[in-house]
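ok posting inputs for the NDP job
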Amino acid sequence: MTKALFDLTGRVAIVTGGNGGIGLGMARGLAAAGASIVIAGRNQAKSEAAVTELATSGVKAIALTVDVNDTRSVKAMVADTLKAFGRIDILINNAGINIRKPPQEIALEEWNEVIQTNLTSAFVASQAVHPAMKESGGGKIINIGSMLSIFGASFAPAYGASKGGIVQFTRSCAIAWAPDNIQCNAVLPGWIDTELTQNARREVDGLYDKVLARSPSGRWGAPGDFAGIAVFLASRASDFVTGAAIPVDGGFSVQG
Ligand code: NDP
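and the output
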């Protein structure tokens, strides 16, 4: 019974930015539960390496070269997935970037790049998968937010706007597409050790220890911490969960 609830055999998942970090952590979880995986990123070598690794667990996995900032590329990702697998059950909008500058310094082009990558691409991809999910009787969309979906930060005006926006976008889709049996939820990671935060640690003195100091769990998160939430939100186990924004943060957001 429990195994059937979480079984993803026969399901097809697209993970944008699935070639590393949190996205790969989620892809590994979905693959372990039996899903076929589409890894979508710009770096083809990284995506191929992820696919090779996932295929060792016996699932089908393919890499697509996708720039989520290019609407045609996102639409092609959806078309190519349908061509390869004939269906799309799960979409994880995970690709994301940050440009660390205060509001008085960030250029319009930089603002647009962050909003496009973190927020607009999720809209474009979700709209593009909706017909296939509706036609097959349902689906699961998982959007990746942040602690900055909740908190503000002087260094992240565009990033914070995109991550606040993604939660509201998730709620909108959750309501609109509930009649189509498509559940839409957001995951809000705490501080996770990935390339993104390794770059931040190079730029911000003492960041590693500051995060540790206010983390009830006493550690940074790891990509592997996202396997379980991905399987839950992609599986029948979450069929009555929609419009939620779930922190996966070791308690960071509840620390006063
Ligand atoms: P990484 O930098 O490790 O991964 C980011 C991924 O996004 C890469 O796989 C990259 O692939 C992909 N990506 C970036 N831009 C594009 C683009 N234009 N088109 C396609 N793919 C793109 O970061 P994380 O794993 O840390 O981040 C994943 C998500 O989690 C992001 O949305 C981030 O904001 C969020 N997050 C991370 C936190 C953390 O502490 N690490 C905390 C809160 C949220 P490629 O370069 O091949 O295109």
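notes: The radius of gyration is 17 Å. The mean pLDDT is 97.
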